Amino acid sequence: MKTIQTIQAIGKRKTSVARATIKKGTGVIRVNSLKVEALQPEMFRQIIMEPIILAGDKASNVNINVNVFGGGVMSQAQAVRTSIANALVDFLKDKELKDKYLDYDRHMLVADVRQKEMRKPYRSRARARRQKSKR
């Protein structure tokens, strides 16, 4: 019986969550069942392709499927980027690739947990009350 090794990785940014599944293949990358070449806008595609470009030929023999939901377009793109980078590092078990990602941008492998501060009721801003200036 032939076993196919698959790795799953998660990437998060604001309220977006991306789950990447990686296995041996021909280099096809899909995000929400769409090929990455068909994604719009262009900036979204460029952010997603960063870990693949940095990996070079190592990423040409794997298929990556990503499901992403929540948040806006840019936070989804950054969540997908994080999940793809984590999946590639786990699948290839390559310390050199991990170091390359960390040198390029730490948020390739580490989720950015910052979120917008919630809006307080009866206030115009996120801050609970006006600051007082001491004189």
Characterization of the model:
The protein is α+β, with helices and mostly antiparallel strands and 135 residues long. The chain has a single domain (6-108), classed as 2-Layer Sandwich (Ribosomal Protein S5, domain 2), CATH 3.30.230. The protein has three helices and five strands; from the N terminus they run E-E-E-E-H-E-H-H. It has helices at 42-55, 73-92, 95-104, and strands spanning 6-13, 16-24, 29-31, 34-35, 62-69. Strands 1-2-5-3-4 form a five-stranded mixed sheet. Strand 3 and strand 4 form a beta hairpin. Helix 1 (42-55) runs parallel beside helix 2. The protein is elongated, with a radius of gyration of 18 Å. The mean pLDDT is 87.
Summarize this structure as a short list of keywords or feature phrases.
five-stranded mixed β-sheet; alpha+beta; 3 helices; Ribosomal Protein S5, domain 2; 33% helix; 135 residues
Summarize the helix and strand pattern as letters: EEEEHEHH
The CATH top-level class label: Alpha Beta
Low-confidence stretches: none
Distance between the termini: 78 Å
Spatially, the strands of the biggest sheet line up as 1-2-5-3-4
Multimeric status of the protein: single chain
